[in-house]
Specification:
Chain lengths: 497, 352
């Protein structure tokens, strides 16, 4: 990236944040997470809890967000959805996602929302009573939330990398023991290509196809690998088939690339991808965040093995390096917005017993240690929690074979298997998922990838969403959760005091 | 892998929550599933009680009195303006008086001038002491709030800084030298913020709490006895007030404050606010018993009943003063109740 385009990007970010400041008192909440981390469910649950908080039928219930002070103190009057500021971005389909989670009248039809295929946005306005500050009394806070396919997030580290560097790293990663098997086809074809040879559209397309197949295979649930840029290869959106998506890394001999070669064509397309895909995405949605919650699905990687966990660590470190963090001052809010609070949340905490949460948090802390250290040195405040935006299980103790097991009870998804038993998605089961190691470093050791169930020390099943209770007004009550209120208090509490 | 770690298990449940058995398992070895109480509600409760009611009451009370920092109030304006007027009048009168002295005899005038200078000097010194006392009192109250915050947030850096500040408060007390040294060492070691605050509370506050409780016990004893035997109602009202004021001042001194006149006024305001806020809370526990207990005593003798009631009120004033003057919240050690400081009023044997 040239210095000039850097400068142009920076000034456009600044211009947008000034516009934000002038148009209203807002807060941009970044919901960051790789695919399957639970971004959509988190956003849906957050909106559902807040918008229903003021409803009469819910008010009679016991408080479901006790730690969220503004709500617990009765100062949250109401939250309403509003038209979002960006006209070109689709609206977050909150109603559809909620209907999916609750079954929309038919409880048997409840399911987790489909994985996100495109970007969407929503604005939520909170009406509350300000308690302190120079202007106590009724006040408002607008909250802008963006949902996007988690795959795209993997592109952010590319902004800092040249084609040659990216090629080298991708090839190295694909030769590691954990991935070599998955990448065999593509690597075989790649070996026949001559980067210094003439540019050929056929070869480029074939390489891109095989490369994409390799990425898709690695992402499959069995392996649960995370570091798989470029993200649009996995979730192309409306760019499918365009030249910007028809490239692949090459085994380059040197960083010098001669013109009119295959390598030159690939490099041009790589740069085009960065310019037309990654930069606008970064500029419009990530460069202006005030608060950030980073959702990490550590359980999927833990299921797969140490290789996947280390891969997740690499991916998170790369992604979080792209964000601006630091204590914000008045001027910096205007011209160079920075993230001053980051919450790392290990999602799907309902898949294991609460006594294991400390260990899960320790693993997450270890996983994001570099990002945490960097954020703390520049003055941002950081917290790590185990959370479940929607809690699908309850807890129980099972006495079996003379031992007490701390188990969870829920309806496993159809097709899940454990302990030699298959589940049909209807019947409840008490699951003892195994114990996480006390030393978080233990899960990073080894080469395991796609470890079979009978070899693993732990196995986290996926559960169906819980049955929603209906309020008198025919709308569902907010679904149960784990520590969603703590997350909200950390992210928004100080702006609502 | 590791053989000792329990393997993941799954138990299918039927509609009634019983485990579905396959044929191989004999019925008596059937696993039993027992629903556990929801742990997250408890967690949420714990998070909420971190800033619990009694602590909030203390902070509100402190803000209204000892830690008040109002820049402007109509009452303040009134007293300042009136004070300025009176002092202008006084200055005029003094000038005339000194001039008169000089007119009568230069030597007499000189003596008058010297005396005036001495009086002014003493006034300045007193004002300085007063200012110092008020600011110290405010510092203690702020220390209290900050320690409560640091403890709640488990903030190690803040806890270290504040504990050093706390030990500095008592560096003139020889009997606490050991606890001080111990704590100052601890601030350089790896101790969690919350633990450090708790250790400081146990080490530093316990002897002071003990002394404060003794003061309260003595005062409430004196008040109840004097009320019971005093011949006139007016006398015992005056006595109760004097004892209450003396008690508050003593407790402030025990915890490191040195209230002068203004400091005492602020302290009384804080104690009053604290009693007003916690009065409602106390109805649940001891005050109700107190009034009931008073009923029995009153049946024996009206004067005796009044004595008991006045003693109880004095004890409550003392407890409120204790909560407000203490440089740290009651956390590791429980806050004493009326029953703890004045057990003799309840017909129990004193623990002291």
């Amino acid at each position: 990236m040239s210095a000039f385009s850097d400068f142009a990007l920076a000034s456009r970010i600044a211009a947008r944040s000034v516009a934000d400041y002038v148009t209203g008192r807002g807060l941009r909440l970044g919901v960051t997470g790789l695919s399957r981390a639970g971004k959509t469910v988190f956003i849906t649950a957050l909106i559902h809890h807040l918008t229903r908080a003021g409803a009469l039928a819910v008010r009679a219930e016991k408080n479901r967000l006790p730690v969220f002070r503004v709500h617990a103190e009765g100062r949250l009057a109401k939250a309403r959805l509003e038209p979002q500021p960006d006209d070109a971005v689709p609206r977050f389909a909150y109603e559809d996602h909620l209907a999916a989670l609750t079954g929309g009248g038919d409880a048997e039809a409840r399911h987790w929302p489909e994985s996100t295929r495109r970007i969407s946005e929503l604005r939520l306005t909170l009406e509350f009573e300000r308690k302190s500050g120079w202007n106590p009394g009724a006040s408002e806070l607008t909250l802008d939330i963006v949902d996007y396919p988690g795959e795209w997030l993997l592109d952010l580290p590319l902004l800092q990398k040249s084609f040659a560097q990216w090629s080298r790293e991708t090839l190295e990663a694909s030769s590691a023991a954990a991935r070599a098997g998955l990448a065999a086809d593509w690597r075989g074809f790649n070996a026949t290509l001559d980067p210094a040879g003439p540019a050929s559209e056929d070869n480029a397309r074939k390489a891109a196809e095989l490369f994409t197949a390799y990425l898709k295979a690695s992402k499959a649930e069995r392996y649960a690998l995370s570091t798989l840029p470029p993200g649009r290869f996995l979730m192309p959106g409306d760019l499918e088939g365009s030249p910007a998506l028809t490239f692949a890394p090459l085994a380059l001999q040197s960083d010098e690339i001669a013109p009119d070669t295959l390598a030159a064509m690939m490099e041009r397309r790589y740069e085009a991808y960065k310019r037309h895909v990654v930069k606008p995405f970064f500029r419009d949605h990530f460069a202006r965040l005030d608060r950030q919650i980073v959702l990490v699905d550590a359980l999927g990687a833990l299921n797969s093995g140490a290789g996947a966990v280390r891969d997740l660590e690499t991916a998170m470190t790369g992604v979080l390096g792209a964000f601006r963090t630091g204590r914000s001052s008045f001027l910096s809010t205007l011209f160079r917005p920075k993230i001053d609070k980051i919450l790392f949340a290990a999602t799907k905490a309902d898949h294991l017993h609460h006594t294991s949460h400390d260990r899960l948090e320790a693993i997450l802390r270890h996983l994001t240690a570099r990002a945490i250290a960097r954020a703390e040195t520049v003055g941002a405040s950081v917290d790590v929690i185990a959370m479940a935006a929607v809690r699908a299980t309850r807890e129980a103790r099972v006495a079996a074979g003379g031992k007490d097991l701390e188990a969870i009870v829920g309806v496993p998804l159809a097709g899940e298997t454990l302990d030699g038993q298959g589940f049909d998605g209807r019947q409840e089961a008490a699951i003892f998922p195994g114990e996480l190691p006390a030393d978080p470093r233990a899960v990073f050791r080894g080469e395991g990838l796609g470890v079979a169930e009978h070899e693993a020390d732990y196995r986290f099943l996926r559960f169906r969403p819980p049955l929603a209770r209906m309020a008198e007004d025919g709308q569902p009550y907010p679904l149960p959760h784990i520590r969603l209120d703590r997350a909200l208090e950390f992210l928004l509490g100080d702006r609502l005091s | 892998m590791n053989a000792e770690r329990p393997r993941p298990r799954a138990f299918r449940l039927d509609d009634s929550g019983k485990v579905v058995l396959d044929e191989a398992t004999p019925a008596r070895a059937a696993p039993v599933v027992e629903e556990a109480p929801d742990p997250y509600e408890r967690e949420a409760e714990l998070a909420l009680t971190a800033g619990d009611q009694s602590e909030q009451a203390v902070e509100v009370a402190q803000k209204q009195g000892v830690a008040a920092r109002a820049l402007f109030s109509w009452g303040g304006l009134f007293w300042s303006a009136t004070g300025a007027l009176v002092s202008i009048g006084l200055t005029l009168w003094l000038t005339q008086f000194i001039e008169g002295l000089f007119a009568r005899n230069p030597a007499l005038g000189t003596i008058g001038l010297i005396l005036l200078g001495l009086a002014l000097l003493a006034l300045l010194a007193m004002a300085g002491r007063e200012l110092f006392a008020v600011s110290r009192q405010r510092a203690i109250a702020e220390l209290h709030m900050n320690l409560a915050k640091a403890r709640e947030a488990d903030d190690r850096d803040a806890a270290r800084r504040l504990v050093i500040e706390l030990t500095g408060l008592y560096d003139k007390r020889p009997d606490m030298a050991r606890a001080r040294g111990h704590l100052n060492d601890l601030t350089r070691e790896i101790v969690d913020g919350r633990d450090l605050v708790d250790i400081a509370e146990r080490a530093l506050m316990t002897p002071l709490d003990e002394a404060a409780r003794r003061e309260i016990a003595n005062a409430s004893k004196r008040v109840s006895v004097v009320t019971a035997i005093s011949p006139r109602a007016l006398l015992d009202v005056l006595f109760v007030i004097a004892q209450a004021v003396r008690l508050m001042r003593r407790i402030a001194e025990i915890y490191g404050g040195r209230p002068g006149l203004f400091g005492l006024i602020k302290l009384i305001r804080s104690v009053g606010a604290h009693i007003a806020i916690t009065g409602g809370m106390a109805v649940g526990d001891s005050l109700l018993q107190q009034v009931l207990g008073h009923g029995i005593a009153a049946k024996l003798s009206a004067r005796l009943g009044e004595g008991v009631l006045n003693g109880l009120l004095t004890a409550r004033v003392g407890l409120s003063a204790m909560a407000v003057c203490r440089p740290m919240p009651f956390a590791a050690t429980p806050a004493p109740g009326v029953k703890d400081v004045a057990p003799f009023l309840f017909g129990e044997k004193s623990k002291d």
